[in-house]
Amino acid sequence: MSTSSNTPSSTSADAPMVEFTLFAPYNEEAALIAEFTDWEPLAMTRGEDGVFRVQVPLADGTYRYKFRVRSKSWFFEEGAWVDVVDPYATAIDHEGGENGVVRVRGGERYVDDYAWQHDEAHLPPDHALAIYELHVADFSGGEDDAHERGDFRHVEEKLDYLQELGVNALELMPVQAYPGDHSWGYNPRHFFAVHPGYGTSEDLKRLVDACHGRGMRVILDMVLNHSESESPLTQIDHDYWYHHEPTDPNNTWGPEFNYEKYDESLGTFPARKFAGDLVRFWVEEYHIDGIRFDAAKHIASHDFMTWVVGEAKRAAGVKPFYTIAEHIPEVPEIVGQEGPMDGCWHNGFYHGITAHLKGERFDLDELKGLLDGRRKGFTGPTALVNYIASHDHGHLMAVLAEAGIHDAEAFRRAKLGAALTFTALGVPMLWMGSEFGEYKKKQLEEAKIDWPLLANEANRGLFAYHQGLVALRKEQGALQTENLEFIHENDEARVLAFKRWDEGGSQVVVVANLSDQHHASYCVPGLGSGTWHEWTKDYDTDVAGELTLELGPWEAQVFVKR
């Protein structure tokens, strides 16, 4: 293949010069190929900084392009030429093969023309969050057409619904470009580009902006542990950015970034530089309000995680920015004053609470550790993100059905689980559809939310129950602190009660019955004298040191101090 310089036939000699760059410090040759070169290679020159460069006169417009390089990856023949999309491409086009897309105006490259409307909107602080996790393709879209994919536009159309529910933060499963038509997004190929099937960069910005206008934050699930096997960096020089082999063969999802590799000649950590550029780009370009770091345990670099979180927060500036680690099992070292993250997915909460909801066991010590993460060493009101359903585990109704628990009994236990999730110490999270009883099992294939379920009385009742819990979480400062005290425990009756409070006078007491027994005239001490409002049944009761209540099977009652 010849890489001799060509004058781009589709460009004008008097157009502004636009520079194309590729960081590939140890590759021998590289060329630019694009529709404005008639897809003929235009040789690039490598500088001492390891960057290949070439300038092209380009009139204003949108162009497809990629690079052709002599690969240094061990799985190609030595000196083989490979075509790769720009690792920093901000848009991808699949027509006629996979290409990067660049927009040019006045000699400058730009992403899009979106004009932000709600940058000054007040957004909730981390400790007040109620998170809603969703997968763009399966959350909405296609209600009238089973073949229509969900996209950013469809999520935006559901914001009225989410606002009615009351959640104040959306956690989007990965939206970066991946191969194929349907995926959860944990196989990113093009890290700077939005997946074309979800819409354009403007569509995502419009969604984020609309969320901000409603007082909702947007948290992006981001994969920094690994990439899809044919991601551009793997093709250019695999071992420069990645570990040669999986660090844990039993838990590997693709080539793993090597954040400890240091290039002494250029004075850089290659993978860290790429990750830092990446998080800054998404924070600055898309105005996101937090990042959930997938597979943080397998990144296995406390130093890198601390650094990259710092990069993200510096890019965010003064606005609240919540960082979450998926670290399974969860460990206190990942959060807190010494840890890099603000919060950690509480996977143990899911396993422990669902086991109790199924009636598999009743372990007071375990329950107390789940509800009060300080017993496990987690400190602060945002250290844990609690959930009883997520994309990793599917919906609670499916879990209960597998245990032979159906219909009214399942809805009763779902309400109990929700009450514990929203009153435990930490930040509560809902998995899409759980709030009204979606029943699908975990599956990687397309699994659209069954929205017609909301027409059923039981499903709508579960939605209203969650709606009330979200409001309670946002209104009661007691549920936004790390103050939690267990005031009553009865191993034989399987009843547990705990109190939450803040310094402003907000007090909440939760009494939970994790048995199939009805307890009439049940007494709970420790509330103190005064009037309390029971939220689930909407009644007031005067208490003089001891609360007496009628407690149904698999029921939580929530008392708020008047």
- Count of distinct strands: 28
- The radius of gyration over CA amounts to 26 Å
The main sheet comes to: 8 strands, parallel, barrel
Strand neighbour order, sheet with most strands: 11-12-15-16-17-18-19-20
Indicate the proportion of strand residues.
Answer: 25-35%
> Helical segment tally?
13
Secondary-structure-derived class: alpha/beta
Determine the oligomeric state from the structure: single chain
Mean pLDDT: 95
Uncertain stretches of 5 or more adjacent residues: 1-10
- The helical percent reads 10-25%
Alpha carbon gap, first and last residue:
80 Å
Coarse morphology: elongated
Please supply descriptive tags for the structure shown above.
disordered N terminus; seven-stranded antiparallel β-sheet; 13 helices; elongated
Brief digest:
This protein is an alpha/beta fold and 562 residues long. Strand 8 and strand 9 (99-105) form a beta hairpin.
